[in-house]
Amino acid sequence: MTLELRDTKDDLGKAISDRLVTEIVAAQRDRGVAHIVLTGGSMGGLSLQSLPSADDIDWSNVHFWWGDERFVPAGAADRNDLEADKAALHALPVPAENIHRVAGPEHVADVESAASAYSAAIRAPKAGDGMFDIVMLGMGPDGHVASLFPHHPAQRTEDAIAIAVHDSPKPPPDRVSLTFECLNRSRQVWLLVAGDEKAEAVAAAHAPDADRWDVPAAGVRGADDTVWWLDAAAAAKLPGTE
Ligand SMILES: O=C(O)[C@H](O)[C@@H](O)[C@H](O)[C@H](O)COP(=O)(O)O
């Protein structure tokens, strides 16, 4: 586990985004392709700010995915992919077929169908070795990541890649989320967390006995590294940083 601390949310967003460019270039150098899982929320947009000016990336060999999506139509203000579209995707020459969005209600009958279509897309043979390179996740003040919420039964679905989530405690209620198992099939998992309202959950996720049922952020781990990107406010309750 690595802690990456920055003073402010803006500093944090810039550092994450610069590192993301470096990691995409490294993944392409090593494997020819980069599979990156994006997040919604305010950190989602900030994490992509350096991409439009990156010169060293072969955009035809970048694939973008999402850790979760709200089951609302494309373009709706609630969609997680909107942040990424606004921040960077509109400006990048990534082939449309490399941008793997979760289908909305205008394309499929229900959340279950959206989840199974997304699972099939992830399972499909692809360039690389089937691992994600980076999974980026925002975290809610309750410690949720993607749409895996504390004490929500969807969290316990096993043998699945993407699941339907109903009755999300945070609106909108219907969502598709990757499972812990799928999120953890990544070389690196990055948690992108800023703000004092997150400090309690950050500390809880780092407790030695942290349980993902209570604090879902404690249940995500990269095969090579798990990086907690924190601003000073979010890190304030970690032992040693008070
Ligand atoms: O509806 C949701 O589940 C949230 O939007 C969530 O997924 C978001 O990513 C985190 O709450 C972090 O958000 P911030 O990055 O804005 O703090």
TrEMBL record:
Record-linked Gene3D superfamilies: 3.40.50.1360
The EC number(s) this enzyme carries: 3.1.1.31
Hydrolase recorded as keyword: yes
InterPro entries, sorted: 6-phosphogluconolactonase_DevB (IPR005900), 6PGL (IPR039104), Glc/Gal-6P_isomerase (IPR006148), NagB/RpiA_transferase-like (IPR037171)
Catalytically driven reaction(s): 6-phospho-D-glucono-1,5-lactone + H2O = 6-phospho-D-gluconate + H(+)
Keywords: Hydrolase
GO MF annotation terms: 6-phosphogluconolactonase activity
UniProt xrefs under Pfam families: Glucosamine_iso (PF01182)
Pathway: Carbohydrate degradation; pentose phosphate pathway; D-ribulose 5-phosphate from D-glucose 6-phosphate (oxidative stage): step 2/3
Organism superkingdom: Bacteria
Uppermost EC category: hydrolase
Family in the record: Belongs to the glucosamine/galactosamine-6-phosphate isomerase family. 6-phosphogluconolactonase subfamily.
Role according to the record: Hydrolysis of 6-phosphogluconolactone to 6-phosphogluconate.
The protein, known as: 6-phosphogluconolactonase
